[in-house]
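Thread: calcium ion complex, take 2
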Amino acid sequence: MADVHIVVLAAGKGTRMKSALPKVLHRAGGLPLIEHVFRAADTLSPRSTTVIVGHHAEAVQTALHERLGLLFAKQEPQLGTGHALLQSEPMLRGRQGSVVLLSGDVPLLRPTTLEELVRVHTERGAAATVLTAVVDDPRGYGRIVRDERGRIIAIVEHKDASPEQQRIPEINSGIYVFDLPPLFGALRAIGASNAQGEYYLPDLVAIYRSRGLLVETVVARDSREILGVNSRRELADVTGILKTSRNEGLMEAGVTIVDPATTFIGPDVSIAPDTTIHPGVYLEGQTVVGTGCVIHSGVRIVDSRVDDDVIINNFCVIVESHISRGARLGPFAHIRPQSVVGEDAHVGNFVELKKTTLGRGSKANHLSYLGDATIGDKVNVGAGTITCNYDGVAKHPTVIEDGAFIGSDSQLVAPVRVGRGAYVAAGSSITEDVPPGSLAIARGRQTNKEGWVSRKKNR
Ligand code: UD1
Ligand code: CA
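Output below.
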């Protein structure tokens, strides 16, 4: 196949979003809008990808730094889509093949549609091929004007369309393939005498036709694919469509989703069959969930691994951590980055783990903070236990060896180690290491003053 180059338009202001954030960086379905566009484009194995930036150019470039090899062209000022594409000329000079032009704000485009667009373009030997769609409500879009033989002759923007043209239901998606050789010369021929005083890229169609160049069209099978995001309302529409198709795919693959309407699962999350997801769950980033798990309502999991047969009760937050097979969490557990919950371990309500490993079969069931701690197997961490890991300057580690028992309401002042099988009496403030097999008591002794109450009353 001939070389394919990608150009993504992302210089516009996005006025209708009423946002300080550039439009293409708004997120839907777990990714910035423009990332959806890149992913669709990836299937074409492009030779180069150029992003046209303008409004908030630096913010867009910074946000995309992880996508290696992207080229950026700045459009300043923004004089319209035709002018925008012209800015990619330095990147594409001397290159072969064709350009696929995409919009950073059209995130639902499917890879198969793009492949078909390029295939039709190549097979028919067209100079330009336009992706179109037939929609119920064409307002705002450019209309596809065809001659009596059905060939495209022009695209007319809504604001420039006659009443008759406004009734045309076939619209321009803003996605095109152009052969490189005639492109930049023709772009310079575009004028700006139209309702918006802009250099309209769609005017290329009429210019190509007048120069005898072949222009083809492909009609998108599902017109929702070419939905552009111009407002928060459309952002929510797109979010809903992405959510529905993601959930349908997972259910198809054997995952039970109790209420797909309120379940948000990112594109890079994987879930094995026979796991049940209750309403209001968010699974984000590179999260992996095994089989036989139950994730109850209100749980949010980010960039984490959850092995098989794990039960996560309501309202837990888990970030960058690993939950091992058979563990039980929550309700209301907070598992912060770099934590590991061991096999069959229990982490109960109002327990926070940070950079902490809880060994196999260990339990921290109630009201605890465990930070920078390495906790062995079969350890019982009593209610209200706190690792005092921070001295105001640095963080210090706590080690609790296998089989230890930490009585309720204890503080472990780090750095400190509780040896294998040792006991810490309830209410202790442990400041020194506890040898294996011993009992540490570190609290004031109790004195009972008998008869004190009646003596006080008689006074
Ligand atoms: C455009 C098309 C219209 C089509 C619609 C599909 C034009 C003139 N009209 O209209 O036929 O039906 O898309 O969604 O092309 N941009 C720049 N620089 C600019 C102007 C725009 O980079 O100077 C970018 C925007 O950031 C956006 C894209 O181009 O990503 C489209 O611009 P937008 O203003 O949204 O065009 P529409 O009015 O939607
Ligand atoms: Ca648009």
